[in-house]
Design goal:
The complex is a heterodimer of chains A (326) and B (296). Chain A is mainly α. Chain A contains 13 helices and no strands. Chain A has a single domain, classed as Orthogonal Bundle (ABC transporter involved in vitamin B12 uptake, BtuC). In chain A, helix 1 packs parallel to helix 7 and helix 3 packs antiparallel against helix 10. The longest helix of chain A has 27 residues. Chain B has 296 residues and is mainly alpha-helical. Chain B has one domain: ABC transporter involved in vitamin B12 uptake, BtuC. In chain B, helix 1 runs antiparallel to helix 10. The longest helix of chain B is centred in the first third of the chain and has 31 residues. The relative contact order of chain B is 0.20. Classes of the chains: A mainly alpha (326), B mainly alpha (296).
Chain lengths: 326, 296
């Protein structure tokens, strides 16, 4: 099977890009506009996904209500993270946020009763009891497919419908963030990024604006986590390792900091690199074992990040002045 | 009580490794404004360099330790030439440097994975030999780790206190422009800092491999956040602080699991203790326990 010609393969790449667009927008708002060095973004993806799955399995709640609650839960968690840390210097903030994300992951691994432990959501109702939190999602997709099948035939797969939904939401999120950063609120945010003391001198409550940016970005992170949970029927703490946060950073740097429409560009390039090198079985990839391919993929992503920082730190769409942050 | 003693000894061992890892990170962060995320994977590089050199010399562990220290120092200096110096020349900011370091971490770790595979590896030592010092039991590898770690901490302390090189490094870390103005050769001192940081990372890698008995290429990244915590605890840029911070943190991580301490935390939460210490120190005393105040 030649994956390049397979539409289903490209649907999968597209879904990955869509989820990373939503994740990236959250970080774009936090870093690109508010200047916050958040290296714990993946924690909110985990919080979104786990809240959804836990509420459905443990309380029997409707998936749709659980998903909305998962987005709301991100706000108190962002306060928990932000209140003690947002006054810190940039490098300290990077370290604390990274540590926060690791605490979330360790809790997910060790609190088996709550999260299913290192085995993931498959153990949510205890070992041996099959759990299927996204039944309503799959049923909805099935219904839509039944409508579309007479029109589109084989093309109307589960992933195709997911692709349309994720990108509809992603584009809506881009427009929302674009609106936010062009509002007076967004202008204050940018002024804080450029010259915090000046913004404070003008009477702006710097801390409060940063906290708001962190909270909105975190809700977007949780939204990506909800979609991750929808798409994969099953996930585990291993899906939320710090590397995912690093990927999101690569996405926004690639597209350009403080450029919202750069995010989907960065996410698309990243998704082709990431999912592409995983499933493409054409030479030179087909010469390698699958684990070697996985290592090579990470090496390529790492090298891309290094070369980007050395030769075009402002990304595809960015302006250099908005990148060189002290 | 004997359990507590054992935990204290384990804690000193963990702490010594963190201390050795933290010295390099604190100097590089203090002087170059580089939060070196790839330091963890540099440590992993050292662990495997030690393994490969030891087996090349017929399972000679002494050769392995020396080889690890040299190879990792060469790696760190080489990276300064091809990566960090060009970025310094371009006056890259904190974010650019940090992201470059993340890219480097990805490359290093997965290159190691590619070369040696994901299966756990062990050093060529008799793992079953156990020494008993009163109530405390230590394996041969733990004894080696403890001796080497204490010796290198004393050596590094001496280097900073007594030698010209060490004083130059501290001066640079203390006040970069002042040190440059009084005629310290900045580029040479930076190279020496990378060499020292690399050598210590190599040693830390071998020691961590010894203490863990068997390890895979993730061992370095698993040390990274505790090392960061030790750096913050000691105050960024303070070499002595990093040594003390590492030891205190190692002790805290082990002793926190003691039953006598309100039941203790589960051993699987040891890492979380380090993260919690990191966040607590930042909230209560962001300049570090030994650092000077320079908050923002």
């Amino acid at each position: 099977m030649n994956a390049i010609l397979n539409a289903q393969f490209w649907f999968f790449v597209g879904i990955t890009a869509g989820i990373f667009t939503i994740l990236g927008l959250g970080l774009q708002l936090q870093f690109g506009y508010a200047g916050l060095l958040n290296f714990g973004h993946v924690a909110f993806m985990a919080i979104g996904g786990y809240t959804t799955a836990i509420l459905v399995v443990k309380t029997g709640m409707s998936l749709w209500i659980a998903a909305v609650l998962a987005l709301l839960v991100a706000v108190p968690f962002s306060l928990l993270l932000g209140l003690p840390t947002l006054r810190l210097r940039a490098d300290y903030l990077a370290m604390t946020t990274l540590a926060f994300a690791e605490i979330v992951r360790y809790v997910a691994i060790n609190e088996e009763g709550l999260t299913g432990g290192s085995q993931g959501t498959i153990n949510l109702a205890g070992v041996g009891t099959a759990t299927n939190y996204n039944r309503e999602w799959l049923a909805m997709i099935g219904t839509v497919r039944d409508w579309l099948e007479p029109l589109l035939g084989d093309l109307a797969s589960r992933d195709f419908i997911m692709l349309i939904i994720v990108w509809t939401v992603a584009i809506a999120a881009i427009i929302l963030v674009q609106y936010l950063v062009r509002s007076p609120w967004g202008r204050v945010l940018k002024s804080i990024r450029e010259e915090e003391d000046a913004a404070a001198a003008l009477g702006k409550d710097v801390f409060r604006f940063k906290q708001q940016a962190l909270a909105i970005g975190s809700v977007l992170g949780a939204l990506a986590g909800v979609f991750h949970a929808f798409q994969f029927s099953f996930f585990s703490p291993a899906d939320f390792v710090p590397i995912v946060t690093f990927f999101v950073w690569m996405v926004i740097i690639l597209g350009g900091t403080a450029r919202n429409w750069g995010v989907p560009i960065g996410a698309a390039v990243f998704a082709v690199l990431f999912a592409g090198t995983r499933f493409l079985d054409v030479p030179p990839f087909s010469w390698l074992e699958s684990d070697e391919r996985a290592y090579l993929r990470m090496i390529i992503i790492g090298l891309a990040l290094i070369l980007l920082m050395m030769f075009r730190p402002q990304g595809v769409l960015g302006k250099r002045e908005e990148m060189v942050l002290e | 009580m004997s359990e507590l003693l054992q935990l204290i000894v384990n804690g000193l061992m963990t702490g010594a490794i963190l201390a050795i890892g933290a010295v390099g990170v604190t100097l590089v962060l203090g002087i170059l404004r580089l939060l070196h995320v790839a330091h963890g994977d540099t440590i992993a590089f050292g662990a495997y360099a030690g393994l490969l050199v030891a087996s090349a010399f017929g399972d000679n562990m002494v050769a392995g330790i020396v080889g690890a220290i040299l190879a990792t120092a060469v790696l760190a200096v080489g990276l300064d030439y091809i990566l960090w110096r060009p970025l310094r020349r371009r006056q890259a900011g904190l974010v650019s440097l940090l992201l470059t370091s993340i890219g480097l971490a990805l490359v290093l770790r997965h290159a190691i994975f590619w070369v040696v595979g994901a299966n756990p590896r062990q050093y060529p030592l008799d793992l079953l030999r156990v020494f008993e010092l009163g109530p405390v039991r230590l394996s041969l590898s733990q004894v080696i780790a403890l001796v080497l770690a204490s010796a290198s901490i004393l050596l590094v302390g001496w280097l900073f206190a007594r030698t010209n090189i060490g004083k130059r490094m501290r001066a640079l870390s203390d006040d970069f422009s002042l040190a440059a103005v009084v005629g310290i050769d900045v580029n040479r001192t930076i190279l020496l800092i990378w060499a020292l940081s690399g050598a210590l990372a190599g040693l830390a890698g071998v020691l961590q491999g010894l203490v863990r008995n068997s390890f895979n290429p993730n061992l370095g990244f698993q040390l990274l956040l505790p090392v960061f915590a030790a750096v913050v605890l000691g105050g960024i840029g303070s070499a002595y602080g990093a040594l003390a911070g590492g030891l205190i943190l190692g002790l805290a991580m082990e002793v926190a699991t003691w039953d006598g301490l309100l039941g203790g935390v589960p051993a699987s939460y040891k890492q979380v203790v380090a993260f919690a210490v990191l966040i607590l120190v930042l909230i209560v005393r962001p300049e570090g326990v030994f650092g000077k105040a320079e908050l923002r």
